[in-house]
Amino acid sequence: MKKPQFAFLLGLGCFLAFGIVSPLAAQKTPPESHPILAHRGVHQTYAREGLERDTCTASRINPPTHAFMENTIPSVQATVALGADVIEVDVHPTTDGDFAVFHDWTLDCRTNGSGVTRSHTMAYLRGLDVGYGYTADQGASFPLRGKGLGLLVNLEEVLNALPSTQVLINIKSRDPEEGRKLAAYLAKRGVSPDRVMVYGHEVPVAAYLLAVGPAYRGFSKKQVADCLKSYVFWGWSGFVPKACKRSVILVPHSHTGLIWGWRSSFAKRMAKAGSQVYLVGPVPKNSQSSLAGLNDPALLKGLPEGVGVWTDAVEIIAPALAGK
Question: Which domains are seen in the chain, by residue range?
Answer without folding.
Answer: 7-322 (3.20.20.190)
